[in-house]
Write a structure and sequence with these properties.
The complex is a heterodimer of chains A (595) and B (82). Chain A is α/β, with parallel strands linked by helices and 595 residues long. Chain A contains 16 helices and 20 strands. In chain A, strands 1, 2, 6, 7, 8, 9, 16 and 17 form an 8-stranded mixed beta sheet that branches. Chain A has a 4-stranded antiparallel beta sheet with strand order 11-14-13-12, with helices on one face. In chain A, strands 3-5-4 form a 3-stranded antiparallel beta sheet. Chain A is globular. Classes of the chains: A alpha/beta (595), B mainly alpha (82). Chain B: It comes from Candidatus Desulfobacillus denitrificans.
């Protein structure tokens, strides 16, 4: 069947920070640029980012990109590629100042410069002491950033396709990416977007977990599309968790609650952190607290009918302190936990927050995949940036404020590379292969015709529970092994999901079923990659890879200093080496990650 | 329900997909509770709320900001109760 076609120089999927930054580069270069987005651009999940964006501007005290680079490599537990990390840290000042010129309302010093505050893990002089490196716009940094970038894009004539769901990558027999198929929600029409450059900036897939801080739109659409088109997904076992999300909801309870004296308790009311961290207790690092919580739950000391959460207790604090110093926490607890924290403790669980892995790219934003003897050959016409991509700058764990920096630097860099590539190409657009379009149509036809089958909501829940229970913040060999079989069973169900509503206009049941197709790819990639990696590193912490003198923190550099690559076809894993050589400076040598 | 209204409500539901998880959860609970049982006045109030910026909307829902607008006040209360 023929479908209508629209032709552009560049098509960008996703209108969060990375997508808008990339689009701006292309539109300002005069290229005909389309941005496809499921929701209005300023409702992208970038809005939720509060912390700030890291840049060694040195406005408050001495700072240097090389120190920032050191912190990022260390934070990544040496799994980050040092060429990409140097590139990002060197570019940070430039992209932040550009953003300032676009009208971003950064907080200011008395002298009128961008005000900078300290943030966990950011240090001066190669890990010596904390440094003020985060640039913020009150607690609405992500929101302000999106608005500045969106307005600039409107000025540059970027063409927005709002409420369009991209469905599949169009790739020809030679492996070139020629655009995407997409669904217009308003009409149900399927259109082929033909382009010389296709940039994915679709964000993370945190909704694969039952407890997640991610908004509902974070369904890993770009990762699903890439995987179905034969592109591997890199380092998918690495997910950052936050220790205290409201159980059953995922909404974050800030670390400030423990800072103000909040205590974690198990089912018998015991302050269990005293056993795990006798000195720091409830103020131990995120990893330590999360692991202790999971151990309590796994050993049967969790709370509630299913014994699947612990309690965060602030009932001993003066209500005035709660109201004054922890604004919003009471409302969140009442709304999402159904408890008033002045009277009762808040049920909490470690909660998925950020995806470190993704579509493999180099620091120019080109998607790279194995070809012939090389593990990283650029896929012609395909680029990715932001949380959906893996450059890899976050490696095994991300530093706070580096996510907004990532999307600015690599959004711009992917845009710049795409501009160069489009300008170099003298040929007309290649013809779109009908087989690629037919694959999308077959997926939709199955949904339209299938009468009996699995329920999308139940399958999604089964996926989320499997991921949470078998591949959470603290991992166990037997649970991971069992998790692989279970998630593959869920995948079978997803392939036979049926929807009752067959209407065309704004059929949200169809949209959610299509999103589930993407989520399940990410879930399978995560479980299989995590089961295979037999060490602890960064956010991937296994019970059977503990801290020993030979393997500090359970990290095994001899066998596992390498990136995982998961391929959808046959659920195959392969590995590629970490780039330990930076662009201009010396390698930051391996050592134990300790703070 | 006629197809036109059905499509309008489905569109409104999609506009309840937000940037912030707090709002997603709030709207999800609301729709689970009311189903398609919203009248034209509810629809109008919801349309106004979903047109707002996420942080501003959350400030209203969580009570950090207040409004004197009767139509919005009633709907905000129902969202909180859901």
């Amino acid at each position: 069947m023929k479908i209508s076609k629209r032709t552009f120089d560049a098509v960008i999927v996703g209108a969060g920070g990375a997508g808008l930054r990339a689009a701006l580069q292309l539109s300002e270069a005069g290229l005909k640029t389309a941005v496809l987005t499921k929701v209005f651009p300023t409702r992208s999940h970038t809005v939720a980012a509060q912390g700030g964006v890291a840049a060694s501007l040195g406005n408050s005290e001495e700072d240097h990109w090389h120190w920032h680079m050191y912190d990022t490599v260390k934070g990544s537990d040496w799994l980050g590629d040092q060429d990409a990390i140097e590139f990002m840290c060197r570019k940070a000042n430039e992209v932040v100042i550009e953003l300032e010129h676009y009208g971003m309302p950064f907080d200011r010093t008395d002298a009128g410069k961008i005000y900078q505050r300290p943030f966990g893990g950011h240090m001066s002089n190669f890990g010596e002491k904390p440094v003020r490196r985060s640039c913020a716009a009150a607690d609405r940094t992500g929101h302000a950033m999106l608005h500045a970038l969106y307005q600039r894009n409107v000025r540059a004539n970027t063409q927005f396709f709002v409420e369009w769901l991209a469905l599949d990558l169009i790739r020809d027999a030679e492996g070139d990416v020629l655009g995407v198929t997409a669904l217009e929600m308003e009409t149900g029409e399927i259109v082929a977007f033909q382009s010389k450059a296709t940039i994915f900036a679709t964000g993370g897939a945190g909704r694969i977990y039952h407890s997640s801080t991610n908004a509902f739109i974070n369904t890993g659409d770009g990762l699903g599309m890439a995987a179905r088109a034969g592109i591997p997904l890199e380092d998918m076992e690495f997910w950052q968790f936050h220790p205290t999300g409201v159980a059953g909801a995922g909404v974050l309870i800030t670390e400030g609650v423990r800072g103000e004296g909040g205590i974690l308790r198990n089912s018998s009311g015991e302050r269990f952190m005293e056993r795990y961290a006798p000195n720091a207790k409830d103020l131990a690092s995120r990893d330590v607290v999360s692991r202790a919580m999971v151990t309590e739950i796994n050993e049967g000391r969790g709370c509630g009918p299913n014994k699947d959460f612990v309690l965060l207790d602030i009932t001993h604090l003066d209500p005035k302190v709660i109201m004054q110093r922890l604004p919003g926490i009471r409302e969140i607890s009442i709304q999402f936990a159904g408890t008033d924290p002045i009277k009762e403790p808040i049920p909490v669980v470690p909660t998925c927050h950020y995806q470190m892995g993704g579509i493999p790219t180099n620091y120019s934003g080109q998607v790279v995949a194995p070809r012939g003897a090389s593990m990283s050959v650029a896929v012609p016409g395909f680029y990715a940036a932001g949380e959906c991509a893996c450059a890899s700058v976050h490696g095994a764990n991300r530093l706070g404020t580096n996510s907004l920096l990532d999307l600015l630097v690599f959004g711009k860099s992917a845009g710049e590379t795409a501009v160069e590539d489009v300008r170099k190409s003298t040929k007309a657009h290649k013809e779109l292969p009908q087989e690629a379009i037919d694959r999308t149509l077959a997926r939709l036809a199955r949904l339209d015709t299938q009468k009996e089958g699995a329920d999308a909501h139940e399958s999604r829940l089964a996926m989320q529970r499997t991921m949470q229970n078998h591949c959470g913040v603290f991992r166990f060999a037997d649970k991971l092994k069992e998790g692989v079989s279970k998630i593959l069973e869920v995948q079978q169900d997803v392939q036979r999901v049926a929807i009752k509503d067959k209407s065309k206009v704004f059929n949200t049941a169809r949209i959610e079923a299509l999103e589930l197709d993407n989520l399940i790819e990410v879930a399978v990639a995560t479980m299989i990659s995590a089961e295979a990696r037999k060490e602890s590193r960064g956010a991937h912490v296994r019970d059977d890879a503990q801290d020993t003198p030979e393997h500090p923190n359970g990290r095994d550099d001899t066998n596992w200093l390498k990136h995982s690559l998961w391929f959808k076809e046959g659920n195959r894993l392969d590995y590629k080496s970490v780039k330990l050589t930076p662009l201009t400076v010396d390698t930051i040598e391996l050592k134990k990650r300790a703070y | 329900m006629d197809e036109e209204r059905g499509a309008r409500l489905r569109r409104l539901r999609w506009h309840c997909r937000r940037a912030l998880l707090e709002l997603d959860l709030m709207f999800q609970r609301f729709w689970d509770r009311v189903g398609d049982g919203v009248d034209a006045a509810d629809e109008a109030a919801l349309e106004r709320l979903v047109g707002m910026e996420d942080h501003d909307l959350w400030d209203l829902v969580s009570g950090r900001q207040e409004t004197d607008d009767r139509q919005l006040k009633d709907m905000l209360e129902r969202l909180r109760q859901a």
